[in-house]
Amino acid sequence: MKPMNDVLLGEVAQKFKVLSDPIRLRILHELQNGEKTVNELVSATGSSQPNISKHLALLRTAGLVHRRKQGNQAYFSIAAPYIFQLCDIVCGGIAEELEQKNQSLA
Length: 106
Fold this sequence. Notes:
Blueprint: H1 6-18, H2 22-31, E1 36-37, H3 38-45, H4 49-61, E2 65-70, E3 73-78, H5 82-105
Antiparallel strand pairs: 1-3, 2-3
């Protein structure tokens, strides 16, 4: 592993902080299949429009999503594709842990 300076560690911590909310993870998951509008994300997540807009703003500030305006619509897409590799690794590891827990309880 490469050495990490304080600036890099701070940036990494900030990204993880943004990823620490289940709604934001759900939004990223939905955007994995292509760009979507706020209304499409509201339908896909079951969350309210103001809530989705708030989370999208945080994801944009963190540099994880892009916004493209077309007429009255704003389309959101992934700005940092590496995020899916990270999520695959973390989700895969957690799924294995849960499976092991379930097997030990059986």
